Amino acid sequence: MQAIDSVLAQTFTDYEIFVIDDGSNDGTQDALRHYRGRINFLQQANQGPEIARNLAAREAKGEYLAMLDSDDMLMPCALETYDQALRNFNSPPILIGSMLYFSDENDLPQKGPGSDGIEIMQYRDFLSKDVTIGLSNSRIVVSRSLFEKVGGARHSSPATFHCDDFHLMLKIGTYGPCLVVRRPVTVAYRCHDFNSVRSVKPLARGVCALIRSEHRGEYPGGLRRKFARYACIGGIAQLWVRKAWRARQYRDSFILLLYSFPMVTAAVFKKIFTKFFQKTALVLFRRHNRRSAIHINS
Question: What is the pTM (predicted TM-score) of this model?
Answer without folding.
Answer: 0.89
